[in-house]
Amino acid sequence: MGFHREPNTFVSQVNLKVANLERSLPFYKEVLGLQVLHQTSNTAELTADGKNVLVSIQQPDEVVSKQGRTTGLYHFALLLPTRADLGRLLKHFLQVRYPLQGASDHLVSEAIYLADLDGNGIEVYADRPASNWSWNNGEVEMATVALDAESLLAEGEGEAWNGMPAGTIMGHIHLHVSELQKTEEFYTKGLGFEVVTRYGGQALFISTGKYHHHIGLNTWNGVGAPPATENSVGMESYTMVFPSEEKRAQILSQLQGLGVAVTEEKGAFITEDPSGNRIRLEV
Length: 283
Prior knowledge:
- Residues 10-127, 169-283 form the VOC domain.
- The protein is of the alpha+beta class and 283 residues long.
- The protein is 19% helix and 36% strand.
- It has helices at residues 21-31, 83-96, 149-155, 181-190, 245-257; strands at residues 10-17, 35-39, 43-47, 53-58, 72-79, 102-105, 109-115, 121-127, 135-136, 139-140, 145-146, 169-176, 194-199, 203-207, 215-218, 234-241, 262-265, 268-272, 278-282.
- The strands form three sheets. The chain has a nine-stranded mixed sheet.
- The protein starts with 9 loop residues before the first strand and ends with a strand.
């Protein structure tokens, strides 16, 4: 999992808005298998290892349901340490009969898709060894084919599922955006990512350090899609981690050169991509 540590830039945490915190917590604890690290009357921070927050959920005042055809979260993706871990999690999902939205073999990884009770998209996946990924002209080869569920379940046999493994990390995030040209400029010339895959004119995947993707970006909700309202269920922000203060300072300078606004809140730098997706810039 060297793609999610220095010298790379990566996503470490996703901050969500939900309609009802008490209704959501059983899903995140009992179905997804995360633990509550800290909780208040309207927020909860969730972890796999008891130390690092992967997902935070909050219940906004006067919250409204998730709005369709807007920019924002497509899914956040939790990367499990091994294929066997993914097999055990799949067995758990089947045992509790939680509805799944899909399961795919992407060549570079194997993935299972679902959503929380408010429709916030979630992927759980395991990577294949990077030595097995194929690259052509600077782009990584990916596909969406049927997952071999029987093989995956067999891989997980012999050990009971006991919650999300401690080594689980935020593998990537996939976002709905309103267009791709300015978005690509923001993420590459501003934040320093490289494009590693393009899907026609509708989606692109970007990363640092030649990962298959740290961030996915698509216009599947429509070119020109607006941001959701502030009190809508969905993503509040996500956290991007830089390898050093020097690297973050360089990125802040690049954003300034593009005319992108950056604000400071309680010691954290905050910016937004051209579609209004809010990003916390941390070290």
